Input
Amino acid sequence: MNNKKTTKRALISSLLSLVLCMSMLIGTTFAWFTDSVTSATNTITAGNLDIAIVDANDEDLSTISFVKANGEGTILWEPGCTYKTQEFYIKNNGNLDLKYEVVISGLTGDTDLLNVIDFTFSGIENGAKGTLKAGAKTNAITISGHMDEDAGNDYMNKSLEGVSITVNATQLASEYDSIDNQYDKFASYTEVSTEAELRDALAKGGDIVLAADITAADNERFDIPASTATLLDLNGYTLTSNDGGQGHWMAIYVSDNAHFTLEDSSADKTGKLVSSCYGVYVKQNATFVMNSGNIIVRGNGDYDHGVTLFNGNFVMNGGTITASVGVYAYDYYADAQDPTVVINDGNLIKEKETKDNYEPEYIMQEGSANITINGGTFDGVAFNENGDDYIVVVSE
Output
């Protein structure tokens, strides 16, 4: 009997305790085990593109000077003398790999002196391209000038202002993001799809890439403004200009002292510049460099010339020119520097039909011109040492 009472009391006590515990839990919440950690965010650093012209001590050069062998006295040009500039370098002072192009121009003053002073470049050439890793620099570069021994008194007391050297640089497609290294393939390029966009881009200069076929309006041409540097990448597309009549006979007009480069980055190299008269027309002291692409001139023009030089300069490093006359070098301005043609590579295709004014030729020279053929092919036949086979002189 006593045991039953004791058991009953214990059960009642337990039930009361359970009820009390339940009442204490009402209005409370349960919590999981938790933890947290914070990591500092990585620093975001933008790259720096910085190209410079420096001396042997990596000091910036704002002026490049001719020097004497003994390092003393004033530079005075006289017949038979040869002066060289100090050595200078192109340096990548930034932390991004870059690609560059060198534009040498700006000989001003008494241009008569250009007839008796021959300028040559060591370590680089006009229109040269290259790449530089961050912190790297080119080999030493010098410019030398030699005054003709037969220069007479007519050249006394005249002056030239010197050489302007411009280095255009853009970032090289070598840096990797989290996907690949192609995110900056067209770094600093202006992409154009219409005639209006192309004209606007050409007016500003710089690197331009076609994103569609473009045809100029009738009686219009595309101009490269004076003293600008422009690169046009055909990118596999076609740029067309029809015969525009007087003053507009060319697809591209390269104005005085300008620098124009044509190339085609497409895999199949199908980009074309098409004209019905002149392809690229280059004025005095201007330079046209053709690295790749195709210039095709066929139509109703009296002169179907691929490249026409009016005391301009042309360097062919690749590509194909198809025209009745591939290159026409005309010493038009008597007091200007002679036109210059340098064929390093590429292919000149001579159209077979005969014009009233001339027989089809690979290269035609009228007046005085400097023509050098280092390589390339002519109608698919490799150049040989007898380069005169490819040049016709129509007058002296």
